[in-house]
Amino acid sequence: MAIRLRQVALVAHDLDAVEEDLIAELGLEPCVRDLGVSQFGLRNVLFPVGERLLEVVSPVETGTTAGRQLARRNGDGGYMVLVQTDDLVGDRERLDTLGVRVVLEASMPGIEGVHLHPKDVGGAILSIDETVDWLDWPWAGSTWRDHVRTDVVSDLVAVEIQAHDPAIMAERWAAVLGVGRSGSVVLLDEGEIRFVEATDGRGDGVSGLGFRSDRSADLEIGGVRVALRPQ
Questions:
Q1: Would you give the end-to-end CA distance of the chain in angstroms?
Q2: CA dihedral angle for residue 170, residue 58, residue 14, residue 68, rounded to 10 degrees
Q3: Torsion on CA atoms 165, 167, 170, 175, rounded to nearest 10
Q4: Alpha-helical runs (H) found in the chain
Q5: pLDDT confidence bin for 118, thresholds 50/70/90
């Protein structure tokens, strides 16, 4: 089985402002908008980062999950983590054994996935997705690679999730994904998910992103810490 980090979504009150920051600070270029998220009362934009994608969503209707997340965590921040698997059938069998509920089954030509109940996983909405072609990612449209820009960042290598008990949440994520961990770091075939103590009063949630870059910098964009590091 192979499993890798493939996409992270942020949620923002003002999508346009966060989009401008991502373009200005990270040199990213949008590749697609919408592709179905309007049915959930959202608007969005996606940016390719090497082989991975960074998404920003913003509610345009009341009563959305994204809107509740903004209220619960008192502002912009992380929303979803999407991983790519090559064995969704086996993953679903493991989820059933663990008693993890699926809250949404999503599909379009070339890809299908399951969104897991955040109360059964913790920290974020986790989506496990399988593509017909391992190199493809239809959630981002058919031309996303035409928009890859690497002048500032070349890869999204890590997601940081803060938790009341990082070790327990890391253990849960490792079990759910069927992968190993080193302390509070869940190890994927590509990328890693790091769990840290929640100290800012905002509760559990995605709190940081790590990017590969030819320079070192620490920023804050869209309510999350952004670390640029040579690797």
A1: 26
A2: -60
A3: -110
A4: 15-26, 65-72, 88-98, 118-121, 166-177
A5: very high
Q: Which amino acid is it at 21?
A: D
> ∠198-7-21 over CA atoms, to 5°?
75
Digit-coded pLDDT (tens) for 86-116: 999 999 999 999 999 999 999 999 999 999 9
In the block, tokens 């995605």 appear at 206
**Separation CA 212–CA 50 (nearest Å):** 10
Pick one of 3.10.180.10, 3.20.20.140, 3.90.550.50, 3.30.300.30 as the CATH number of 3-134+149-229: 3.10.180.10
What is the structure's pLDDT at 126?
A: 98
Written as one letter, the residue type at 156 is L
On the question of pLDDT at 38 being above 90, the answer is no
Gyration radius (Cα) of the chain, Å: 16
Model pTM score? 0.95
Average confidence (pLDDT) over 50-68: 91
